[in-house]
Amino acid sequence: MKRTVWTFGLIAGAIMSVMMVITIPFADRLWEMGTAEVIGYTTIIAAFLLIFFGIRSYRDNKAGRTISFGRALLVGVLINVVASACYVATWELIYYRLYPDFGERYAAHAIEKERTKGGTEAELAKKIADMQKFQEMYRNPFFNVAMTFLEPFSVGLIVSVMSAGILRRRRDHASSLAESTAAGLGALV
Question: How confident is the model over 22-35, as pLDDT tens digits?
Fold first, then answer.
């Protein structure tokens, strides 16, 4: 299981990390266009398709073409953990080394968005207070890592549950499937 988890987890993590490195220099422009979240989560979902393929590879190549829901979920969650850890490592490098002013830039964007939306002075003051609190919390490395990890992990958990449900195959189901396939082939001969 280790090889499957590491292989598919590192590939999924590399996809998310490369896309983050490519898009982060354009973050301000993507925020203005309102496409940053769409691009980010689309990339995460696309990368986490590898959870499905990882579970299927494990089932077909290592588990004798059978896998329980629990085992499939375990494989999927472990792939998710590896990929999410890659995502966090990439973000921490970007945040602390390349764009240490990212929190301030994001807060300024959120405040400006609230201002252009036509919010009242009270709403604007609340947004400013919320963004100041966010910046303060985000400077804490533990909070930063936790929030960054949860971003892809939550999506990967959903993909893991769905994939485990789709790919589970009990031993008795697999043997009856093999028997029916053999009987079908026998009827053709």
Answer: 988 787 777 777 77
CB 108 within 8 A of CB 35: no
Report the candidate in 13, 132, 4, 95 with the shortest Cα–Cα distance to residue 57: 4
Encode 138-169: b = buried (16+ Cβ within 10 Å), e = exposed.
Answer: beeeeebeeebbebbbebbbebbbebbeebbb
> Integer distance in angstroms from the first to the last C-alpha of the chain?
39
Q: How far apart are CA 142 and CA 140, in angstroms?
A: 6
Q: What is the pLDDT of residues 34-57, one digit of tens each?
A: 778 888 899 999 999 999 999 999
Residue 65 tokens read as 């073409």
Bridge partner residues of 169 (DSSP):
67
Using CA of residue 108, residue 113, residue 114, residue 116, what is the dihedral sign?
positive
